[in-house]
Structures are given as C-alpha cells and as structure tokens.
Specification:
Blueprint (H helix, E strand, L loop, with lengths): L3 E7 L2 E8 L4 E5 L10 H9 L3 E5 L16 H11 L5 E6 L1 H12 L4 E7 L12 H16 L2 H14 L10 H16 L23 E6 L4 H13 L3 E6 L6 H4 L1 H15 L14
Parallel strand pairs: 3-4, 3-5, 5-6, 6-7, 7-8
Antiparallel strand pairs: 1-2, 2-4
Helix pairs in contact: 1-9, 4-5, 5-6
Amino acid sequence: MVGTPFTVQVGGARLAGLKLGEGLPVVFLHAGVCDKRMWQAQMSMVAEEGWQAVAYDRRGYGETTSPDEAFSHIDDLKAVLNALDIHAAVFVGCSMGGGLAVDFALRNPGRVIGLVLIGTSVTGSPWTSNEAESQLEAAEEDAYERGDLDMINRVQAHLWLDGPRTMGGRVTGAARELFLDMNAIALAKPELTLEEKRDSAWDRMGEIGAPTLLMVGDEDFSALIDRHEYLSEEMPNAFAAVLEGAAHIPSVERPDLVNTMLIEFLDAIEGGDDEGEHGDEEE
C-alpha cells in the first residue's frame, strides 16, 4: 500500500498517520491490539473506488510517540481531522476504534457522514464471558502478572485473531504475522496513565442518527455478538451483519469480505448529504 505519511503534533505526542486517494474521506480507527496497518486492504480498496482513506496510530500504538501526559483520544482524533482539513467523514472503527468513533459521533454529530463499527466497544457497556472465554482471559491475566509480553501476545492472538471459542492458531500466515507484530509494538510501549475518562455511551446509542453498518464475526466474543444485536435494535439507522467464520479482526482475517460490505455501504451513502452541508456541532 503506497500512501502519503503524515504526522500531527498534539501536546507532546506525535501522531503518525497515512492518507491515500482523493474524494470524500473515510477515517479508519484501529483496534486496541493493532495499529493502522490492520486497514491496509480496506484503505487501498477505498482509494481505488474514489474515496480518500485516512488512518493513524493512536497514542500507545504503532509509529506514534507520546509522553505520559494528560490526553483525550477524542481530542487527538479531532486534531487529526483539522490538520487534514477534514470537516466530515465516514468513520470505520474496530473494537476500541469503534468505541472512539461512537464517542466522537455523540460529541460531534455534524462531522459524521456514516459509521462502520466492527466488533465495536462502547464506553460503559456491560461484559460477560462464558467458561471457555474466561479460561483464556485468566491465562492472559496470569501472563500480565508475570510480565511475559511474548505470552501475552500469543494469548491475545488466540482471543482476538483466532476467536476465544476456537483452537489457537486457527488463523495462519501473513495475517497472523501482522497481528503479532502490531500487538508486540503496542505491548512494548510505555504505559500511558493519564487518559481522560470518557462518559458512558451505552445508554445514548439511540441518539446516533448517522447511517451505520454493524459487523461482528461469529467467532468473536459472545458478549460482542450480543452487543451488536442490541445496537442493531437501538440505533435508528443501523444495519447489522454477522461475518461467518471470522473473529474480532476480520479486516485482517477476511479482507475480501470486509471490503465488499464496506464499499456497498459507501456506495449507498454517497448520494446522501453533501460534505459541505454538515455543521461542526459539538456538545
């Protein structure tokens, strides 16, 4: 994937990003076990189809560097958009990236043309685990207590890439190598302890009126599958799809499937509000 690298300085942080193509912007927000590279296939496809693709590494990930200072991921995202002169965009977020997109949309509804949320987190949402999931979570906690970063990475690959109810090592080849590399970089970063706490979004999901595509893999955590079913009923303009044979990072595991659904969604909303009609609304 050939694109134009960019950096945005926010406080003491240097946010590293990549942009590709021209047209209406699609901003990709990565999962908490990945970095911007998880969107390589989607960014290339979006750019080829006449959209502008943008992704960046949040603090604590990838090529971004940051001291341990007070910060807000929402403010960082807004700084990236403003630096690139992006007034409104479609936001594509996976896991924690989806949670950021949701929180941004609640605070800045006029800057959101549409949302694609994949295995999304939601600030303040409930979480329950079944027995198989709990066993892997216990192994992850044990590895953290021992400070074994390599073991943490391997357990998290099982949890998030393979899926917690499948055999470890289900996903192989380049997809696994990429996951392990992205997550190893994140695990090795210094801890950031001063992130601003975000308000719960769980009881406000019905306020998000932007067209939304919800995707979740059928091998993902049971809580996330249940969450997406709830969101599909709660969000007024949401369409939900369950991806067969995929877990939490389908953009890496099944890029063909994600690309097809993403471009269909983008084509469907392209005839909607003109970018210039969106106001910069903020709570």
